[in-house]
Amino acid sequence: MNNQLIVYANNFNYEYVVYFAPFTAPELCTVNITDLGTNDIQCDFVYSVITPNNQSALPYFVYNCIDILYRNVIGRIEFVNNGTVCAYEHINSVVPGNYSTQDNFVIIIDTNGTGVYAFADDFITYYDFGTLAINVWSNTLPISPRAIDLTTNYGVLAGYCQTTPLQAFECAIVIHVNGSSSSPSYTSSFSIGGSLNFSWADPRSTHFIATARAYSTVNLMAVTISALSNRVLIGIRALNVVLLYVVKDPTSSNIIYPVSTRQNGLNRMGFGRSVAWLDNQGKKSVMLANQYNYADNSWISSAIHIYDIESDGFTDQTQPILIYPNSQQMIGPLMNPSFIRLVSNPILGHIAIFDMSGDPSIILSAPPGFYPATDRPSYFSTSVPCIPGTYRSYASIELCSPCQNGTMSNLGGINCNVCSDPDMFCPYGAVEALLPSALETIEQEQDYPESPETTVFDDLLMQNMFSCNTNSLHCVVVSPITWVLLVISFGSFVLVAMGISTIICPGVHPTRDKAKAIFKKMDLIGEGELWIGGLVSVAVVVLVMFAYYFSNAYYYQYPIENVVSESSFACDTSMRNAKFTTSIQMSKPQQAKDIQPIFDLLNAQSFTLIIDLINTAFICSDPILVQRIISYAFINLSISSCTMQYNNSIVSLSVVLPSHNMNMQVTLPGLKTVGAVRLGLTGPAATYENGRYTLLTLNTSSIFIPTSLSSVLATSTDYTLQLSQIVNQTDPLNVDGSAKYSATWFPTFTVRADELFTEQTRYSFFQRTQTNLSITIAENVYYVKNQQQPIARQSEVIFHNLLFTIVVLELFGLFFLVCKLLVVPLVRILHARFHRYHTRNQINTKKNDDANPESTAIPLD
What we know:
Blueprint: E1 5-10, E2 15-20, E3 27-32, E4 43-50, E5 60-67, E6 72-79, E7 88-94, E8 105-109, E9 115-120, E10 123-128, E11 134-138, E12 144-150, E13 155-164, E14 167-176, E15 185-191, E16 221-226, E17 231-236, E18 241-247, E19 256-263, E20 268-277, E21 284-293, E22 299-301, E23 304-308, H1 309-312, E24 322-324, E25 339-345, E26 350-355, E27 360-363, E28 370-373, E29 382-385, E30 390-391, E31 401-402, E32 407-408, E33 417-418, H2 457-465, H3 473-478, H4 480-504, H5 510-521, H6 531-555, E34 579-586, H7 596-604, E35 608-616, E36 625-630, E37 633-637, E38 641-645, E39 650-656, E40 662-669, E41 674-683, E42 686-688, E43 693-695, E44 698-704, E45 711-713, E46 716-730, E47 740-750, H8 753-756, E48 757-759, E49 770-789, H9 794-851
Parallel strand pairs: 43-47, 46-49
Antiparallel strand pairs: 1-2, 2-3, 4-5, 5-6, 6-7, 8-9, 9-10, 10-11, 12-13, 13-14, 14-15, 16-17, 17-18, 18-19, 20-21, 21-22, 21-23, 23-24, 25-26, 26-27, 28-29, 30-31, 32-33, 34-49, 35-39, 35-41, 36-37, 36-40, 38-39, 40-49, 41-44, 42-43, 45-48, 46-47
Helix pairs in contact: 4-6, 5-6, 6-9
């Protein structure tokens, strides 16, 4: 193949098949192999057809064949420009001399395009296109030819060398050609086996053939030379190996040096059946990587490998940058999966692959921003745009490369755009720069409240009646102590006023006496004996009223789901008349009669699995497959809905699950990557018996994000979704009421986080055939039971408030009794003693004054 035509011989149909440029819309021409040439020579079997590397004149190709008389023939078919697509001139000639049919017969056009060399076991010939003369020389080269390639200064001929009468090994020689003037000569020969180091257990270590001239498809070889880099590739099918050599000085006798080798596994053969350069600079090579069983030569598989030798070298550890076929470039319907030959056009970057039936698959180099698609019903590839998240800045048959982390490509193209914000989610192969808001999860509140520290109503009542948090204005305002102190302060003011009034007006005072009478009637403590008891009784009434108010308000703080406002009646606004217990219980097929309906609602709830593929090139029209696995049988599940969000960078799949316990697999075809995955579960709410049994809405999701942005979702990941039942039982506030039940599912994901994502490189990207998400959903054998009970029911509130009232009255009564029996007598005794002491001092002072009447006179002198 070259820039003007692609040609191959189909011996089965006795025809040459020719495609003319432009190859995007090629013109087809067929030439009969048995067509008589200028010398009335009729071919019977064609060995090979070749074209010059590049052509500017009329297109032509050269062939070598065996005619119907078993003669060795070289011919040339040149197409003429007379307005007819398939107009040609056919010139052929028989190789002179009495030579038998040559099994090993290879040809190569010289670099000037003026003639063709033919190397066979018995002869070497040069066929001049200008004079149509054939020069024939006896083959004196120490090699039985299998493959050849030429440059302007030298050539490499590979084949088998007969080292002993019973053994022949793979070898090659460096040759120099002189056109028709003389037979090609060689400057050096080298044994290929010297570059190979097979272990003693490797059957290839003892490989040889008995006779160098014995033809077998097993012993085919291939040679290709890059004139610019002077790199030589030699492929040996029988040894399953390709060798890389470098030519240093074409004029010296030791001009070629082994560089490295690459083999394709033990007990196999076929690697290197064809080798070629993908570019004319000798940087990238393309190889036919067939696999045949070493023992019986049975075919196993065929593939095309592309290696970046310039960047990666060429060893057993070197990974190909592309393997064809792959999930993005599949074998077309016209192609057999068993390949037998490969050729390339290094100038244009095209390759042609031939299958065992002789049919071609021609992969044309795609322009930047495109890649060649090969799955069409055509012998030629079609250039299609790079998929989102990938790019390619040069023309090639390669796939587009994924954008590196920190860059993105929404439509595919020549380059990737840099993600502007480092906080954006831009992993390897990113389609869009996603903000953190696109990666949010949905978490349903499943935490059940804990019981307060105090769950005894007596303690709560006492704490709230006799405490005052001065650090909070609200607590000061609602504290009973604040108002009791205000009442006591008012009583103290009245008491002081009464005292002052008694001192000023010790006799009868109507207002004062009336006030005392009123206060005596209010006296609950002294039972009407003391007017001051009435003042204190007012404080007692205030305290008791606060207790009643608190108890009434606290009583209705139940259940917590019905309380919509804060508990403003207490210092602690979160105070509720509820205590909670949580227990784990075994699920049984049949529960107690009162609780069974809530389990029926749980078991009847339908689930919808939500699968969000984040930062991916997958779209809803891709053949995404969701299957349920039952005893190794796969049952397809329909995708109920598919939506795309965030500039088509997130694909959201909804799948209605047929069961709560199941194994399923989601298959994402092809090599498109997924940056992150979010799995969610939804289910509708339901009620029974007028709301006594309530099934809550289920809506939850979990996201799985790689720790490194150079990682993508692995080709096979496992997710275990454990479903736990949570049943909430709310006991009635009144003893004669009925308990209420609510329930929900609590999903938890169990994953191996270190296995969800994998590093992706240019060497592994194309090897991805599909991405599988295996999801196991199972119900837990235990369920969580949350029970809510009131701390204080109505009878308890009434009883404890009456008890509190009695206790307060008794406490204040005790206080007054203590004052009456101890404090008042003590005060009176102290007052009497003080009065006597004061009176005695006054009497003594008066006696002293009477005894010394002049003691106070002031003398004048």
